[in-house]
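Justification of resources, computational component.

The compute hours requested in this renewal are based largely on the per-chain cost of generating structure records like the one below. Each record pairs the submitted sequence with a full structure-token output. That output is archived, and it is also reused by downstream analysis tasks.
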Amino acid sequence: MALLRATLAGALAAGCYSPTLPDCTVACANDADCAPSQTCGGDGMCASPERAGRCIGASLDAALDARVPDAGVPDAPRCRFAVTIEGKGRVVIDGLVECKHKEGTCAFDLPVLPHDVIAIAERDWMFERWTSVACAAQDDACYLASCTSTTLIGVSFVHDD
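The structure output for this chain reads:
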């Protein structure tokens, strides 16, 4: 057992261990936040250079179909999310679609399901609060058990002094 530990410790020290991370699984602010073979894309996710910037929303239809097989059917029940952001940050819904502060108000039509809504602050900014009733009193990770025909999502980020 001691020999195994010594061999493992030697291999780790010699740099033989190199963890790999699947594309689009780690949020980032810059390339230093990503694995060596990845870059930080414009969508704030680590990915291989050929996929960088295309993680969020790239496979929305496929992901929705995986969650709800009939999501692609035109008459499947849907709700509209209207997202408004104050300050500098973004809102990601189910890891599939996002709204950035630069885009003003965003709108997404998604199936009537429970949804995870995440507020992600930009560098030097921090989540202050949700400004909408739908996520009121929740932290930066908001869970919505259901949605209405139009669900308003508002968030406020403040500068981190």
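DSSP finds two helices and ten strands in the chain. Residues 80 and 107 are 7 Å apart (CA to CA).
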